[in-house]
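re: ur question from yesterday

yeah so i grabbed the chain u mentioned. its 69 aa long if i counted rite. heres the sequnce exactly as i have it in my notes:
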Amino acid sequence: MEAEIWGRRIRAFRKLKGYTQEGFAKALGISVSILGEIERGNRLPSAAIIQDAADVLNISADELAPPEK
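ran it thru and got these structure tokens back, copy pasting raw so excuse formatting
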């Protein structure tokens, strides 16, 4: 469940900032297949990937994080 929420948020911010999966994966230094797994919620992103994604998207990791209930 948590992986799905992270994946949806990463995908939404990626699209909002105009990145393709290929371009975003390259900027993160990961494969497109790993990014796809994360975005589909099949893989929980590591703390390093979360921070790298936030840096590439020019947002804070807190903004990228799912809201707490």
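noticed a couple things. The chain has five helices and no strands. also The mean pLDDT is 96.
anyway ttyl
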